Amino acid sequence: MRDQSKPPVEAAFLNVQNAAKYMGISVNTLYVWRHRRQGPPSFRMGPGGRVMYRRDLLDAWLGDQQMADSRSTPALNPLNRDPQQRERRRAA
User: Fold this and answer.
1) What span, in angstroms and rounded, lies between the C-alpha atoms of 91 and 83?
2) CB neighbours (10 Å) of residue 30?
3) Is the pTM of this model over 0.85?
């Protein structure tokens, strides 16, 4: 019988299916991002060339996405900035 007191070991590397599940997105979205070179860093591993993702790089990439969003970063929110003054045009 398994010892229920030990937590399961979390894998440092995730395949496409597990990475998509970890991020809460579809496998297709992850494939499209990889094809467009938009998503988190990935690499091929092993003789079969399976696409893999490092868990720590997924977390870092997700954090970067959150910081780049103006809704979660007050410094990027345009509503928190002073309004810009328009320059008046001079009559010719």
Assistant:
1) 25
2) 21
3) no
